[in-house]
Amino acid sequence: MFPVHLWAELCPLRWLNPLFKIGHKRKLEPDDMYSVLPEDRSQHLGEELQGYWDQEVKRAQKDAQEPSLMKAVIKCYWKSYLIWGMFTFLEVKDFHTVPQNTCSIVLCSKMTWYHLRNLDLCLPLSFQALRLSSSAMGKTTTGQIVNLLSNDVNRFDQVTMFLHYLWVGPLQAVAVTALLWMEIGISCLAGMAVLIILLLLQSCFGKLFSSLRSKTAVLTDDRIRTMNEAITGIRTIKMNVWEKSFIGLITRLRRKEISKILKSSYLKGMNLASFFAVSKSIILVTFISNELLDNLITGSQVFMVVMLFEALRFSSTLYFPMAIEKVSEAIISIQRIKNFLSLDEMSQCYAQLPPDGEIIVDVQDLTGFWEKASETPTLQGLSFTVRPGELLAVVGPVGAGKSSLLSAVLGELPLSQGKVSVHGRIAYVSQQPWVFSGTVRSNILFGKKYEKERYEEVIKACALEEDLRLLREGDLTEIGDRGIPLSEGQKARVSLARAVYQDADIYLLDDPLSTVDAGVSRHLFQQCVCQALKEKITILVTHQLQYLKDASQILILKDGKMVKRGTYFEFLKSSQSEPSPVPGTSTVISESLGRPLQSPRPLLKGAAQEEQDTENIQVTLPLEGHLEGKVDSKTYANYFTAGAHWSVIIFLILVNIAAQVRKGIYLDLWLTLSTILFGIIRSLLIFYVLANSAQTLHNKMLESILRTPVLFFNRNPIGRILNRFSKDIGHMDDLLPQTFQDFIQMFLLVIGVVGVMVASIPWIAILVIPLGIIFFVLRWYFLRASRDVKRLESTTRSPVFSHLASSLRGLGTIRAYKAEHKFQKLFDAHQDLHSEAWFLLLMTSRWLAVYLDVICAIFVTVVAFGALILTDALNPEEVGLVLSLTITLMGMFQWCVRQSAEAENMMISVERGIEYTDLEKEAPWEYEHRPPPSWPLDGRISIDNLKFRYSLDGPLVLKNLDTFIGSREKHGIVGRTGAGKSSLIAALFRLSEPEGDIKIDGILTTSIGLHDLRKKMSVAPQEPVLFTGTMRNNLDPLNEHTNEELWNALEEVQLKDTIKNLPGKMNTELAEYGLNLSVGQRQLVCLARAILKKNQILIIDKATSNVDPRTDELIQTKIRERFAHCTVLTIAHSLSSVINCQGIMVLDSGRLKETGQPNDLLQNRNSLCYKMMQQLGKDEVAVLPEREKQDRESYLNGLTLCDPMNCSTPASLSITNSWSSLKVTSIE
């Protein structure tokens, strides 16, 4: 036997001692953690398993079978797992029979546990997520992937602990049966029959565990997916007053989920109850059978029988049932992960490097489907060729297939026929700009080395100089998870700058000009597209028709088909000599053709050099703060009372005491039965109370999170919030109740055993009391560091989810730049940081277990030798009883201490949950004194000395605004990108509390509840937000309108025919974020949603920026007709969208520079409005006053406003309402 100090010196876990010393002195920080070993890194472990999975997929394809992830896992880990399983068997064999050998094998058992938990399925999951095809993305959600990473992968951590007991338990039972047969004969079979019945019953429980886990996982997927959508679309939810609706929806999902969890918990409770009851039942049945057979039994035989059955207690009645439970759940998790890994992957991208040096994009007879089951192709029969120095402009109405065409060039759209040849490196700008957490500079560099001269040229070409000057730290300003503090236009230009800085061969630009004002748009087209990219292949999707004359080719799409393709000269010639093939053409204002056209851009010979100047992408995901010190007693009180009243808690305590008091006598039948009964009631009651606690806490977190200001979501990445609603809630659902149940039962059992020992031999108290003190001090010392490690483990998990969610949002951009490997490395880095905390948490737990085992072994040795020394003073029965109880206590006492420490560590999840129930709240939703139901009648808006900032310590984004909008007036709000236009809307909706006065019909907006204010205004935002569900649910989430009203709203936004052509019409299921609709269609759905509310005030925040001009004009006309008696505020980049308004406000740098009637502002050559008009171009300048005059006269005469599509114009570039021809006429 090793002395304690010698063992501490020899123990390989002594490397943890410095960590415990640091934790004893101060709060642990991430830098205090040890780096993971090379063989334990995410990349190494994941690639190893990924290799076996790839082999399994190939084998399955060859044999025409389903691939099995289970086989891949077994092939990868079976050798090491089998070897370490031998140590598990040795531990069980020696634990109760040779206590003196415990010290020699206990460390091996702890190392076994650590080694087996190295199974890493996170990397294959993240690797698969980066390869998912667009059709596969419609079959999964971010919520499901987060659930797979947080809860399903965690099942492997649990199953590896107990899997070997599936064979160790029965094998040990056979060995014990043989020894009992030699000791007491055939009567031992009666007791073993009870054990066999139990094992068979546990096997039946396994099927129930599988079924319940399968149903629970699906409900958890839905809950986390809905939570993810709520967080992502929080601005839309708040402005539309949908908080209560989402609370109700998520609460219903949670209620269904918890009902399944509760059933599973009851089964777990039965398992734990059987652990304490079955051993007594087996002993009772064995001795009754022995008595019925008239067999004599001696005291030594009784001692031996009890000891042998106690040897089976852990392996067969605790670990074996837990192994069945964990294996049953793990099988479901393996199936779910396998289903995800089996989703369709993106088609192999086309060759990016030209074999002969020729750069080209050649598309011939392209036909492709997003959905294989669809009868109508997304694109059909497209052919074109683009060479270096050429600009291909792609135009067409909403939903024509323009973005799908770029996806086909990228290799994202599956082809059914035709050929796409892409030779050269691609840079891509998506229609909805994507930025990641990091600095503005890192977003632009995107892994390229910083070259100051080139960088500054790109900044200038993308019109970012002024914007960067306005940011506090310039291009080193940190961008948040959602691009805060950048506006949509600024994000679009950062995305464009990223593409330009890459110096690629081929540029695919998906309508980047729609999110910026006219001046910036002209700058981007001239300085960026025409100059910076003049030697590149450029395919530009655009609705800005005034730029078509500078295109080398023009491609018109409609319904996925090519209507016409040619050069600008060819369109000009055909329009002068041929009538339009489709009658009823409508005109769209464009540039004059009076001046000479620019010559085509010069060709570039050769390709851009392959990247030699790359470096890692700098993503910044700061760790969240965490508390320190012990878990507050108030946290325990809040947790328990959340699930039940104090009276139930007291009753639970009494049941526990009653269950323990009746465990004293083995051979009393009724006492044994009552022990079993009370044990079952206790277990079920504990699980019931704690499951209710988890549900109540979740609901409080949910309500609190939806009551927080928008600022909270700007500051906290989505993964940080989802972490608490997935992993922490998962701990409360699954692990914490089981740990508490185990601790309570062990604690009471230890008290009972110690009481019997002291009553039998009082001098034992001399040893037991110091033992208890040592355990208590060791636990205190251990928790000082372990609590911090657990908190670090929780906080380092958040960046994993945040990075994954961000990568999924920018998946198209990442794949276009061939940056999957870089983002995979970033994922590995976040995963390794979490692994550092996770492995430390495991090893600190093992550290405690080793020291507790050593102390217990010393205690047993001292008691045994003490009994030998006092042989003359003690009778054999007392010695046998004390020795048997001492050996039992050796396992129970240290397990009790470990479970108490584990329970406190698990309470960190409760602590983190309670932290989210006490967040800063925005103003009340309703006040006692509410405005009249008919308010506002007139829609007058008065703004006086308005100042607005998004946070108390943030800069002012609106400064001293004063304006008045009269009853039922139509006002336009214009200004440069980032001028504060959308911030004015945020102030109206009180997304952050404004300074100054905003009055609507004389009522101060800050004097009424947020819901009373927000539900009286309709808003159509620039960034469309749709949710998973039917089209009808997206249009009318509160189910307040009839089908006729919904169809009318769709007709007004020109979407009725599109929705009618969908397979399910109004019941068509939308994918996550509405990805099965184009961006323009999503904007129109959001606009229809705003129209349906029929409020007196309508706000349109660049809601048609991604819509073609003709549809935009039709919608504007419909809005003017429909809302003629309402107040309408229209935020736009183009003056042509607001020229028909009665007033225009011009914002610049957060200040109201000028306001007035359009005609007055346009005639004032010193006004900003006039300068903005001059940026539009000569011919459009000539058109604007004419349109303004006609609209003003129509308004004054009370007539229907002039349809701008039929207004006579001095020059026009005509496109038919079916986009079937391009008609050009020159100026007189």
UniProtKB/TrEMBL annotation:
The keyword Transcription regulation does not apply. Pfam families: ABC_membrane, ABC_tran. Residues 361-584, 941-1174 form the ABC transporter domain. Signal peptide: none annotated. The keyword Transmembrane applies. One of its GO terms (molecular function) is ABC-type xenobiotic transporter activity. Keywords: ATP-binding, Membrane, Nucleotide-binding, Transmembrane, Transmembrane helix, Transport. InterPro entries: AAA+_ATPase (IPR003593), ABC1_TM_dom (IPR011527), ABC1_TM_sf (IPR036640), ABC_transporter-like_ATP-bd (IPR003439), ABC_transporter-like_CS (IPR017871), ABC_transporter_C-like (IPR050173), P-loop_NTPase (IPR027417). It is a multi-pass membrane protein. PROSITE patterns: ABC_TM1F (PS50929), ABC_TRANSPORTER_1 (PS00211), ABC_TRANSPORTER_2 (PS50893). The chain crosses the membrane at residues 178-201, 636-657, 669-691, 740-758, 764-782, 848-869, 881-897. It comes from the Eukaryota. It is found in: Membrane. GO terms for cellular component: basolateral plasma membrane. This is Multidrug resistance-associated protein 4-like. It comes from Bos mutus grunniens (Wild yak). The lineage of its organism: Eukaryota, Metazoa, Chordata, Craniata, Vertebrata.
